[in-house]
Amino acid sequence: MNPQQLSRLKEEQAKALTQTDNQISQIEKYKNDYKVLQDRLKTLPDQLTHEVMVPFGKLAFMPGKIVHTNEILVLLGDNWFAERTAKQAHSIASRRIDELDKQLKDLKAQRKLLEPRLEFTSGMQDQIEGQQDVKEIVEEYDAEKERLWDEQHKKNLRKQREEARQASEWAHKQKQEEVRPKEKEFSDQDLWARLDALEQEEADRGELDSEEKWDNHSERPEGKSVSWKDEATLLSDLEKSVQPDSDDNVADDESEENEDDGDDDDENGSEKLNARSSQTERPVVRTIRFTHTDTPSHEISQVNSAGDASIQSPADIYKLYSPASILKKPVSNMKMAKASEGQSAQRKGINFPNEDRYCETVVSQLAGRPNSSNSSQKAFTGKVLEMSHETSGTSGHTATSSSHNVQDTAEKSEVKEEQPRRISKFKAARMAQQGLT
Amino acid sequence: MAEGAQKRLQSELDKFQTVQKDVAKHIGLRQQLEGQLSENTLVKEELDRLEDGAGVFKMVGPALIKQDLKEAKQNVQKRIDYINGELKRHEKLIKDLEKTADTHRENLNKLQQQFQQAQVKAAAKA
């Protein structure tokens, strides 16, 4: 806003205000005059005559007498006169005072209206002229500058993202490297020793932990299982012990774990492994043949199959994870291949020439495995991959083209040798066990 | 072109100014009338308060002329009515004048814009 306009406005407002003030003061004066008049009118009729100096023209006064002290000729206005007594004149004067009071009130109200306007205007002026510490916020807009800034910002963002990506990659690698050697260090003996220790620990703590999340698993060997009862009726004890095991594997993978990080998980896992090892697993693994009817309840059939040999009941994994997107397919394929491989390895232990290698890959897998993507696993589950592998196992894995997905198996066979596989550590342990045997 | 615009602008401005003067004049007249009205109402009130037979005078020139109270009241009432009529007339007049002033103002704005455009054009040419 233009300061000049403002000052003009201010001027006008000030003028209006002074006008009002003038009117007010004039009315006050009238009022005072009327009051004096009233006093005079009161005392006038007290005497019959008054000695006064009578004004005679502008300059002169003459001594004179007021007679008829109770006869007042009152100017009513508009050149109307009325003859009144002093008392009546007095009442007229008081009425006029009332009238003046009314006007005075109005004028004062007007003044109240005008004052804040003037204040606002002058405040505004002050602000604009920067006399107070209030400032108008002005932001320049320069299209060119804006554009440059935008570009720079985009660049920076990209750079930052790149850096973040590299950092995460590096961290990932680092972790893999870190974990891999560590895992490698574990000889099978160490592994088993560790598992034994963990089992021991769990035995010690088993009752204490009964409230915990995994307690149904840990209790199962003692035959106290409650929550799994439904399945338990279907399964043998062995199967029961295996079933949670697969759960544990998943959990472990998920948390990207070395063995020490989750006691409960490890306890369960070790217990199960031990149970398996101590029980019939090894003999069973190799001997069992099973066929799948195309029952709708994949889970149960899977459980059965898992019970006898493979831990990897993918159905369980599927339960724990939501299906992954299609984009992850290659990875999941690889995983599947791995898993099947692992299973077959387990079962056919002797058939594999390079078992040590599997152990290794398995372990590395253990370290690097991200959240599993399970759409393919689900498919895998449904299709009973074990079967095909079982059959193909005798002839060697490259030859595995069986009743189901040819493409899958082909991929698997390809992937098998070249890439490090991801396998749960328990599976690894089992494989290691087989390797020992 | 520019000169024609300027002439038109000038004439319009003159018209506008005369109208505004008229408005101001009539507003002044109205104020006067309002003052007279209030004065007369006061007189009327006082006359109403007077008892019958009270001496009432009208000053005409240098002389006070005694009037009958009743007659005085009627006169004052007539005067008040007349003033009210005058007030209304002036009110209407002022409104009309303001309207015309507004139209003149709009015209003036238009002309001013045209004039400025013409000036800019002239400047661009030169």
Automatic annotation (TrEMBL), chain A:
<feature type="compositionally biased region" description="Polar residues">
    <location>
        <begin position="370"/>
        <end position="379"/>
    </location>
</feature>
<dbReference type="GO" id="GO:0005634">
    <property type="term" value="C:nucleus"/>
</dbReference>
<feature type="compositionally biased region" description="Polar residues">
    <location>
        <begin position="298"/>
        <end position="310"/>
    </location>
</feature>
<feature type="region of interest" description="Disordered">
    <location>
        <begin position="366"/>
        <end position="437"/>
    </location>
</feature>
<keyword id="KW-0539">Nucleus</keyword>
<protein>
    <recommendedName>
        <fullName>Protein phosphatase 1 regulatory subunit 19</fullName>
    </recommendedName>
</protein>
<feature type="compositionally biased region" description="Basic and acidic residues">
    <location>
        <begin position="159"/>
        <end position="242"/>
    </location>
</feature>
<keyword id="KW-0966">Cell projection</keyword>
<feature type="coiled-coil region">
    <location>
        <begin position="90"/>
        <end position="117"/>
    </location>
</feature>
<keyword id="KW-0678">Repressor</keyword>
<dbReference type="GO" id="GO:0003682">
    <property type="term" value="F:chromatin binding"/>
</dbReference>
<keyword id="KW-0496">Mitochondrion</keyword>
<comment type="similarity">
    <text>Belongs to the RNA polymerase II subunit 5-mediating protein family.</text>
</comment>
<dbReference type="InterPro" id="IPR004127">
    <property type="entry name" value="Prefoldin_subunit_alpha"/>
</dbReference>
<keyword id="KW-0805">Transcription regulation</keyword>
<keyword id="KW-0804">Transcription</keyword>
<feature type="compositionally biased region" description="Basic and acidic residues">
    <location>
        <begin position="409"/>
        <end position="421"/>
    </location>
</feature>
<dbReference type="Pfam" id="PF02996">
    <property type="entry name" value="Prefoldin"/>
</dbReference>
<dbReference type="InterPro" id="IPR052255">
    <property type="entry name" value="RNA_pol_II_subunit5-mediator"/>
</dbReference>
<dbReference type="GO" id="GO:0030425">
    <property type="term" value="C:dendrite"/>
</dbReference>
<dbReference type="GO" id="GO:0019212">
    <property type="term" value="F:phosphatase inhibitor activity"/>
</dbReference>
<feature type="coiled-coil region">
    <location>
        <begin position="20"/>
        <end position="47"/>
    </location>
</feature>
UniProtKB/TrEMBL annotation, chain B:
<dbReference type="GO" id="GO:0006457">
    <property type="term" value="P:protein folding"/>
</dbReference>
<dbReference type="GO" id="GO:0051087">
    <property type="term" value="F:protein-folding chaperone binding"/>
</dbReference>
<feature type="coiled-coil region">
    <location>
        <begin position="66"/>
        <end position="121"/>
    </location>
</feature>
<keyword id="KW-0143">Chaperone</keyword>
<comment type="similarity">
    <text>Belongs to the prefoldin subunit beta family.</text>
</comment>
<dbReference type="GO" id="GO:0051131">
    <property type="term" value="P:chaperone-mediated protein complex assembly"/>
</dbReference>
<dbReference type="GO" id="GO:0005737">
    <property type="term" value="C:cytoplasm"/>
</dbReference>
<dbReference type="GO" id="GO:0051082">
    <property type="term" value="F:unfolded protein binding"/>
</dbReference>
<dbReference type="Pfam" id="PF01920">
    <property type="entry name" value="Prefoldin_2"/>
</dbReference>
<keyword id="KW-0175">Coiled coil</keyword>
<dbReference type="InterPro" id="IPR009053">
    <property type="entry name" value="Prefoldin"/>
</dbReference>
<protein>
    <submittedName>
        <fullName>Prefoldin subunit 6-like</fullName>
    </submittedName>
</protein>
<dbReference type="InterPro" id="IPR002777">
    <property type="entry name" value="PFD_beta-like"/>
</dbReference>
<dbReference type="GO" id="GO:0016272">
    <property type="term" value="C:prefoldin complex"/>
</dbReference>
